[in-house]
Write a structure and sequence with these properties.
- By secondary structure, the chain is an alpha/beta fold.
- The chain folds into four domains: 277 residues, TIM Barrel (Alpha-Beta Barrel); 30 residues, no CATH class; 61 residues; 116 residues, Alpha-isopropylmalate synthase LeuA, regulatory domain (Double Stranded RNA Binding Domain, 2-Layer Sandwich), CATH 3.30.160.270.
- 40% of the residues lie in helices and 20% in strands.
- The protein contains 17 helices and 16 strands.
- It has an eight-stranded parallel beta barrel, surrounded by eight helices.
- Helix 5 packs parallel to helix 6.
- The structure holds 3-methyl-2-oxobutanoic acid and zinc ion (ZN).
- Zinc ion (ZN) binds next to loops.
- Catalyzes the condensation of the acetyl group of acetyl-CoA with 3-methyl-2-oxobutanoate (2-ketoisovalerate) to form 3-carboxy-3-hydroxy-4-methylpentanoate (2-isopropylmalate).
């Protein structure tokens, strides 16, 4: 296949994905995901929206300074200040990209931007030129292209390419498109824009009608050669096209689509799990590719067929996306070197010797409670260790719970609050409820619990429970995570992590809110 048959995979988990309510991530969490995306050979990683907040800037900069094998991109509105900030954050990148956008649909231009179409074209051209002065690789997006007029799109796209944009993105911002119609839009643009051969056409589909993946693939058939997508389909509202579905559809139906990607598909499952663990967005069991049932055959007829010849009911192998790769890796007697080298094999880098020591101490504790330690246990353990990046105003010292049939559950805990020991005791409808009430009797955080979820990390009753607690206060949402073989302890860790995030958080701006 020629280079024209390659589809560029542009991952926006760290930017559009983070716009899912409740999916905000810390800098270190973003860096871990970026490293996993690099391992997966994602072509472009949209690391954030540099001007949104100092935290976003810092995350884009750190990722740009660290990742070497993927292009790192920052979003910016078509504004000088945004573009300059993006350029600054990307200065250290091996390969950087500024992604600038402006809305092009009549409804957005009239009501959101309050600008005439001519002014929008002028602003777009100015923004692309400004970005090209800072970076060779510039992408221009026509926000709400799915509801824009074709003639106007042709005009602005031609002008943006003339101004120096190398990639033209045609987003279906509100998830309104239908596959054949969206494909026709892409086909018409490529045909009618006189300089279309000087740019790569890209698509960015939202899933409001459940069509994001179908629309993206239809656009590829029509000539698009970049797909913007996210791990697990995370993203604004109903989310974006799921990377794992796009990549596996292209790979499985190469016979029909006649294109390929450079993704290492064996990294898909572990990355999906990492993103789910960090954001607290669980993956539904019947989710394509990465759901727990994606390769499980329940009916006897199917099982029989698969045992006789796998392809009777399987169109791709579970191994090709990383299933069945979790080996029993370590146990109670494993030493520090074995631990370190398994982390390295998993692509987990700890920032310092003291982080490694802390993770190893947790590993030993876990190995005392749990016979077999799997890769997933190591991932959770490291998440816990790296949670320590967040200043710990609240820290668990000890917890005692009493729960007996016919009696009201009770939790007693000792916390360190800014270094001082505080005791609390409360009753609740269950041990977790009692423990959360006890924490709140001390913290008085004024936040509301929006989500409480527990997942078994591996199989068996000795599995660690991974808990996510989502708290909301004054419009700010944080996700806390905790893992332990005792799910009440895991729950308390997750609650305290959320409170600590709440304490040290910085509010961020939303790229699509606020006009030019
Ligand atoms: O959905 C959208 O239009 C976007 C753009 C900023 C690319 O996310
Ligand atoms: Zn979007």
């Amino acid at each position: 296949m020629s280079s024209n048959d390659r589809v560029i995979i542009f991952d926006t988990t760290l930017r559009d994905g983070e716009q899912s309510p409740g999916a905000s991530m810390t800098k270190d969490e973003k860096l871990r995901i970026a490293k996993a995306l690099e391992r997966m050979k994602v072509d472009v990683i949209e690391a954030g929206f540099a001007i949104a907040s100092p935290g976003d800037f810092d995350a884009v900069k750190t990722i740009a300074d660290t990742i070497k094998d993927s292009t790192i991109c920052s979003l910016s509105r078509a504004l000088d200040a945004d573009i300059e900030r993006a350029g600054e954050a990307l200065a250290g990148a091996n390969s950087g990209r500024i992604h600038t956008f402006i809305a092009t649909s009549p409804i957005h231009m009239e009501y959101k931007l309050r600008m005439q179409p001519d002014q929008v074209v002028e602003q777009a051209v100015r923004a692309v030129k400004k970005a090209r002065n800072l970076c060779d690789d510039v992408e221009f997006s026509c926000e709400d292209a799915g509801r824009s007029e074709l003639d106007f799109l042709c005009r602005i796209v031609e002008a943006a390419i003339d101004a120096g944009a190398r990639t033209i993105n045609i987003p279906d911002t509100v998830g309104y498109a239908i596959p054949h119609q969206y494909a026709e839009l892409i086909r018409q643009l490529i045909e009618r824009v006189p300089n279309s051969d000087k740019a790569i056409f890209s698509v960015h589909c939202h899933n409001d009608l459940g069509l994001a993946v179908a629309n993206s693939l239809a656009a590829v058939v029509a000539g698009a050669r970049q797909v913007e997508c996210t791990i697990n389909g995370l993203g604004e509202r109903a989310g974006n096209a799921a990377l794992e579905e796009i990549v596996m559809a292209i790979r499985t139906r190469e016979d029909l689509l006649k294109v390929h990607t450079r993704i290492d598909t064996t990294q898909i499952l572990s990355t999906s799990r990492m993103v789910s663990g960090i954001t607290g967005f669980p993956v539904q069991p019947n989710k394509a590719i990465v759901g727990a049932n994606a390769f499980a055959h329940e009916s006897g007829i199917h099982q029989d067929g698969v045992l006789k010849h796998r392809e009777t009911y399987e169109i791709m192998s579970a191994e090709s996306v990383g299933w069945n790769a979790n080996k029993m890796v370590l146990g109670k007697h494993s030493g520090r070197n074995a631990f370190r080298s398994r982390l390295q094999e998993l692509g987990i880098e700890l920032a310092s010797e003291s982080e490694l020591n802390a993770a190893f101490a947790r590993f030993k504790d876990l190995a005392d409670k749990k016979h077999e330690i799997f890769d997933e246990d190591l991932q959770a353990l490291v998440t816990d260790t790296q949670n320590e990046e967040v200043t710990e105003h609240y820290k668990l010292v000890s917890l005692e719970v009493a729960s007996k049939t016919g009696e009201v559950p009770q939790a007693e805990l000792v916390l360190l609050v800014d270094g001082e020991e505080v005791r609390a005791s409360e009753q609740g409808s269950g041990p977790v409820d009692a423990a959360f009430k006890a924490i709140e009797s001390v913290a008085q955080s004024g936040s509301t619990l929006q989500l409480y979820s527990v997942n078994a990390i591996t199989q068996g009753t000795d599995s660690q429970g991974e808990v996510t607690v989502r708290l909301e206060r004054a419009g700010r949402i944080v996700n806390g995570n905790g893992a332990d073989t005792d799910i009440v302890v895991a729950s308390v860790k997750a609650y305290l992590h959320a409170l600590n995030l709440m304490q040290c958080g910085v509010a961020r701006a939303h790229p699509q809110v606020g006009g030019i």
